[in-house]
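Researcher: Structure for this, please.
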Amino acid sequence: MNNIISCSEVFYNYNNSFKKKNDLSNIKKTTSVLKGIDLSINKGESVAIIGESGCGKSTLLNLLGAIDKPSSGKILINNTDITKLNEEQTTKIRADNLSFIYQFYHLLKTFSAIENVMMPLLIKGIDKNKAKEKSKNMLFKVGLENKAEHLPNNLSGGERQRVAIARALITNPSCLLADEPTGNLDAKNAKSIIETIIELNQQQELAMVIVTHDEKIAEKMDRILILSDGKLQQ
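Model: Predicted structure, token format:
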């Protein structure tokens, strides 16, 4: 298998500043969130990352998604070490290889479902007619072909998340990163959304990393990794 994302000895720390009582000077305290992460994500593979709240799951996902940079260590996306790139280069790597789904849909409220899906293609400079045709096909895949012209406020929570999925996959990314993608949905919609994601994952042979608290969702992935005390365990 080809490695889409590879991490080696990744650490992530952040500094807190606070003042002691009766002391005007700042005191800095370093908190270690991730403590030497080694991880490889292969083409077509689905991986669940679980762990207690506050353990650093979202932090790790942001590092894998080239949103943040580690304090130390290497992160390779399709064999490119993103820790050595400038902001412009990092943005291009992210746009060319990755897509994201979050708990909240982040749809543009004044744009229709199809316009939201088209947006990443238009940003890439793809012809509007081609972008619209491709977006229609993607909405069909997520079962929303009849809701293409609806605004987000006229869609249910599950439908909005399907639009978000279509938008995330419209650019044929190498890897999909999802942070609690069903956390804002009821059980029925959550089950349907995960089934849709898995089906598209298999059709497009993209890698997939899902951060979740839901063990039922995690069990549907190829691998389950537990993040505890800043380290990943099988």
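Researcher: Any notable elements?
Model: The chain has one domain: 3-19+28-233. Residues 3-19+28-233 form a domain with the Rossmann fold fold (CATH 3.40.50.300).
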